[in-house]
Amino acid sequence: MLAAGGSVSASQIAPIAKATTTRFGRWLLVGCGVSVILVLIGLLIGTTGIARSLTELRHPDSEALTIFWQIRLPRSLGAWCAGALLGLAGCVAQGVFRNPLAEPYLLGTASGAALGVALCLLSFDSGVFSIAWLGALGVTGAACLGAAGAIVLTLALSRGVVQTASLLLAGVVVAFLLSAITSLLLLTKPDIWLSMQSFLLGSTALIGWFAVLLLSAVLGVSLMVALALAKGLDALTLGEDTAQSLGLSLPMLRLAFLGIVAVTTATVVGQCGVIGFVGLVAPHLVRQLFELDHRRLLLGSALSGGILLQAADLLSRWLLQPSELPVGAVTACLGGSYLIVLLWRRNRDA
Amino acid sequence: MHKSSPPTHALSCRGLSLGYGQRLVLQDVSIGIERGTWTAVVGPNGAGKSTLLRALAGLMVPRAGVVQLDDKPLTSWAPRARGQRLAWLAQAVPASELRAYTVVALGRLAHGHWLSQETARDRAIIERVMRATGSLEWADRRLSTLSGGERQRVHLARMLAVEASVLVLDEPTTHLDPPHQEDIVRLLRSQAHGCGVTVVSAIHDLSLALAADQLIVLGASGLIGQGTVAQVLERDWLSVAFGEPVAVIEADGQYLWRPRLGEPGA
User: Fold this and answer.
1) Which of A2, A14, A248 sits opposite B132 (nearest CB)?
2) What is the ipTM of this complex?
3) Across the A/B interface, how many CB contacts are shorter than 8 Å?
4) Residue A118 near residue A186, CB atoms below 8 Å
5) Cα nearest neighbour of A6 on chain B
6) DSSP summary character for residue B161
7) Is B64 helix (H, G, I), strand (E, B) or coil?
8) Is the pLDDT of residue B115 over 70?
9) What per-residue confidence (pLDDT) applies to B39?
């Protein structure tokens, strides 16, 4: 059964792999093109109508310039970056937990961020000295800190990263616990509950150039680290024993990947609140189209996450013009219906 | 200890106790596996074959005792170096969405650098092992679209791609039909006798296990013994292990397990 000849040319299998690569490369290019077009469309959509925006774009006055360059452009770019971060985090989470239902918030980040924001708003409201410094930190910082705190709590509860099952469980427990605390805090202050709502549904409305800079910097770094470690995720698909036997240090690998999930989600939550479904759906979208290793799956997830949130942002601005829908509600509708289609198709094929 | 003489045991353990949670599976096991031999681990269900193999491959932390790879405690090996020296094949491997080729290429993980693409040498090795296991024609298929037996052969190729000097396999013949089981056994034997690789595997099919050089026999109460097939048969360890008489016949120079269907059960 062993091949008689020792040296064999690799010509037989290489072309097939190349075909997938070419197809994926073309898809990446198209995705980038779509992103650019969506940014351009994003310039046109706002409280003023599209027709007026078009005229203003041709003959801009200073007010229009401010709207285009200081409000709409950073908002579109920021939405793309935030979506890409969520897509990346979702792909990493699904890979490291070997669970297609894993999503970026599974370490308790969303509830932690919500608690941080609630504390922040409460301290604005009541002026309690002990937590007054939270107000100075701002809602963004509070959300980020809350998310980071939740992750630390989750890791402490599961006693590190040795067992993924206990990590998942700890994440669920922390999420419930922190949400309960948030609800209790807000029981007495119904007006804060209302302003919390926009945060919990997610919003891309407040993204400025600073946020774009921050989001893109985090995206660049975390994408590079994730791509460098992508073969570890490939190995994990074969089970933890096999991955370990291939010479990987699982604790180190998990720590690195959970670090990526933590940093990316904390950043996004800090800038635009809790936007659901993007991180869950983006990797599935890519997996439906290609059979890919994780290096390309990560890239594809980031790109499709970016496009998804950018499109959702446009819809949220456009559907009820001149008022706005919360972008989180739009992503939930888009992502949720896509998952239903996926489920329906799988049941039909099974 | 003479430093000049090469270590005789590729893989060995002393005083090994293994368990999960409250349950102790094996206690005080000491065995030594000689270089360039094929050793089969046999015993009834639940005797701890998989547990022993996982410990020998360094995939679980023993309660007590030590496992040595090339006369050096397994715990003192760097993960990467161990990954080059010892390859593992699990009994049940999840259905990955990766292409078969990508899976086999993962076998080269411990050899290359994280960021590096596979070299021409890697590709040649991957193609050779895929051809040897008869899995080359599925190179471009997703693992999840392959049948159990086809998948098993891809994983076998993945393990061979490591080019390790010690192979530890948990039930490599499980999902295969009999002629392909034979192929696998022939492949393992040629790895041991032709390439000097040390092979340890659990094998459920007794007739196949009896083709090994050495047997490690596990019973319900732990390790019964280790020896050549002739020694094991002479001492009737298989009957002890399974708790009822096991009949073995010799035909054409090989041992065969004979089901005792004609006789009423004891």
Assistant:
1) A2
2) 0.88
3) 115
4) yes
5) B128
6) H
7) strand
8) no
9) 96
Q: Which two tokens stand for residue A219?
A: 């995206």
**Rounded CA separation A61/A66 (Å):** 9
If you measure CA to CA, which chain B residue comes closest to A8? B124
Backbone angles phi, psi at B97, to 5 degrees: -85, 0
Residue A17: its pLDDT value, please? 60
Who among A1, A8, A229 is closest to B124 (CB)? A8
Q: Which pair of structure tokens corresponds to residue A138?
A: 């701002």
pLDDT above 50 (res A311): yes
CA distance B130 to B138: 9
CA-to-CA distance for B69 and B73, rounded, in angstroms? 6
Question: pLDDT tens, A126-171?
Answer: 655 445 555 556 777 888 888 889 988 998 888 777 777 888 899 9
d(CA A298, CA A280): 13
**Taking 80 as the threshold, does the pLDDT of residue B126 lie above it?**
yes
Quick one: average pLDDT of A203-219?
Answer: 89
CA–CA distance, A183 with A177 (Å, rounded to integer) = 10
Nearest Cα neighbor of A61 from A48, A78, A42, A76 is A48
Q: At A346, which helix (H) or strand (E)?
A: helix A327-349
Residue A281's nearest CA partner among A226, A326, A339, A350 is A339
One-letter identity of residue A162: V
Number of Cβ within a 10 Å radius of residue A70 = 12
Residue A295: is its pLDDT beyond 70?
yes
Looking at the DSSP assignment, which residues form a beta bridge with residue A51?
none
Q: Where are the beta strands (DSSP E) in chain B?
A: 9-20, 23-34, 38-42, 64-69, 72-73, 86-89, 166-170, 198-202, 214-219, 222-228, 247-251, 254-258
What are B189's two structure tokens? 């034997």
